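Why Winged helix DNA-binding domain-containing protein? Reviewers of the renewal asked for a concrete example.
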Amino acid sequence: MHRISDEQRRIRLGRRHLLAPSARTASPVSVADAVVALHATDAATVFLSICARMSEASVDPVEQALYGDVSLVRQLSMRNTLFVVSRELAPCVDASNARAVASKERRTFLKHLADDSNGLDERWLADTEQQTLAALADRSTATGAELSAAVAALRTKITLFPGKRAETVQGVATRVIRILAAEGRIRRDRPRGSWTSSQFRWTAAEPWPFEEPEQARAELARRWLRAYGPATEADLTWWTGWGLGTARKALAAIGAEEVRLDGGAVGRVLPEDLAPEPAPEPWAALLPALDPSAMGWTDRGFHLPAGHREALFDRSGNIGPTVWWNGGIVGGWAQRADGEPVWRLLSDVGRDASAAIEAEASRFSQWVGRTRITPRFRTPLERELTA
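Here is what the prediction returned.
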């Protein structure tokens, strides 16, 4: 069986994820396509991930792509998580993942309505959705609070898990808006605050054109394997949220080849992707919490030393801001109150690497300025550096 070493995997990551300086791009859309999808649970992560890979880092082209020409879109998709993908890829992600997520969101909410004593049902939900869409059409854009003020039904409260220990009373507005967004009938527009804010306004949208789910899953697997291969079946099932059988079917559809990885595991690559690649120039990167280069695999051993995990992850398995050197995670970073980045190396990387990291921190400071970014998921090292 053909073998691909951990060193080769790190070489591929630097070039394919646009982290080596010679691989950087001027296009936010090119960044999204290079890593397939950008984690968007934390709004700032999208900007930080893109700008780390741009030849000229700036907030403006990212905002233009998200809210101007809408060439980047947010979708609730893989693992029921919010991602940003290119508009060209969005129908594929919709068919392979987002459609199923939206269907589950609707079923779950309808069950909560049925369990509540108010007599609310599917017809009530459909009427509420139509009123919400009409109110949004009247306003062009609106916040959730503005929609609730305009639509009385959105101010309804229901009891979740009645009679159980977890019983709680909850408003329906967030649930209704989430379902409409998951189905592609509305989308997030500009936030109320700066680019770091997650308080979005909403605007109308058209659902994505139909794509056959099996073909869409194969296409998504092909793109993912090109960006993250070699990788294991477990990596693909974790990243997509698919079952093992679904992942295997998608890999078979694209003719993925088996390869041996360091440590003995069996990975998969595209059939045309067996040849070794030359190393790019040495590179350093400061990547944000939940960056795709840190979240693309369930087994990150080829780029993340096991001893670093405790400092860099929270209790739920979310990775914080990381410092990279030549394809490996060597430390973590945070910001002081004035926005200045501060970092700690967890690996001994030498003088040249330290100088490159210093230069990358300077590049970060130039475009971020005094903007202060606090990750949604705080990790031990990030908290310590901030303090």
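The first helix runs from residue 6 to 16. This is the kind of structural detail the renewal will allow us to pursue systematically.
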